[in-house]
């Protein structure tokens, strides 16, 4: 059973949603302001958000980036619900961070299937990314800590800032994959946030110094971005 926040002003449609998604617990927010008040007091308790576009105090699409950024403790998928079925609206929604887009009125079976698919994907992601180990670095998201484990240093905890921690976890989670500065900004600071590429470079520079004793190195890929790689101990 998941906890779902429904940002939807229609009482009738919310009742319909509760009947279709009866295996889950639904909370209704009837406006944008109501939604942010609910999220502020209970952000960590929700597993998924259903977001209507047409709301009494504004367009739901405009708040999607800020709403997504409000969930810090875990990834919370946001599914757009809208009577707008045109391709332009769908592309725009995905472009600003929507995880899915369902046209109103939704087919009950399709709605259940899509919601359950998103919930399964998040659960799988969380199970696979709570702990990451690369080379002699051990990254634990549950404890928000990074440990250096090698025969020379033993086990040493490395103190990182929250942004440095996120950057390291992203890079080490997919070693060898190049992440552009824009991708790191979106994943670390959040889509829609104004952060310059120099800010990313500064954090990477500090991160490199803190893990300098590790076999894991953050490498610069010219004109592309950064990647994590394990240095061969024989080359030291």
How do the helices and strands line up, and which of them pair or pack?
Blueprint: E1 3-7, H1 11-20, E2 25-29, H2 32-42, E3 48-52, E4 54-55, E5 58-59, H3 60-70, E6 78-82, H4 87-95, E7 100-103, H5 108-129, E8 131-134, E9 137-140, E10 145-150, E11 154-158, H6 162-173, H7 181-189, H8 197-210, E12 216-221, E13 225-230
Parallel strand pairs: 1-2, 1-3, 3-6, 6-7
Antiparallel strand pairs: 4-5, 8-9, 9-10, 10-11, 12-13
Characterization of this structure:
The chain has 2 domains: 3-128, Response regulator (Rossmann fold); 162-235, Winged helix-like DNA-binding domain superfamily/Winged helix DNA-binding domain (Arc Repressor Mutant, subunit A, Orthogonal Bundle). 42% of the residues lie in helices and 25% in strands. It has 8 helices and 13 strands. 27% of the residues are buried. The model has no long low-confidence stretch (mean pLDDT 87).
């Amino acid at each position: 059973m998941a906890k779902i926040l429904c940002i939807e002003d229609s009482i009738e449609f919310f009742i319909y949603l509760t009947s279709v998604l009866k295996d889950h617990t639904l909370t209704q927010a009837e406006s944008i302001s109501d939604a942010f008040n609910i999220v502020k007091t209970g952000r960590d308790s929700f597993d998924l958000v259903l977001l209507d576009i047409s709301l009494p105090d504004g367009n739901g699409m405009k708040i999607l980036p800020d709403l997504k950024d409000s969930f810090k403790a875990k990834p919370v998928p946001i599914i757009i619900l809208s009577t707008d079925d045109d391709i332009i609206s769908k592309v725009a929604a995905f472009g600003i961070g929507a995880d899915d887009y369902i046209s109103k009125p939704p087919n009950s079976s399709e709605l259940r299937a899509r919601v359950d698919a998103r919930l399964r994907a998040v659960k799988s992601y969380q199970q696979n990314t709570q702990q990451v180990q690369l080379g002699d670095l051990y990254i634990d998201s549950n404890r928000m800590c990074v440990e250096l484990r090698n025969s020379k240093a033993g086990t040493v905890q490395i103190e990182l800032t929250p942004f440095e921690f996120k950057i390291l976890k992203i890079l080490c989670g997919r070693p060898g994959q190049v992440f552009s500065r824009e991708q790191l900004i979106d994943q670390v600071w959040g889509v829609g946030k104004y952060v310059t590429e120099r800010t990313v470079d500064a954090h990477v520079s500090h991160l490199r110094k803190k893990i300098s004793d590790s076999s894991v190195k953050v490498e610069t890929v010219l004109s592309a971005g950064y990647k994590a790689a394990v240095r061969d101990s024989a080359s030291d």
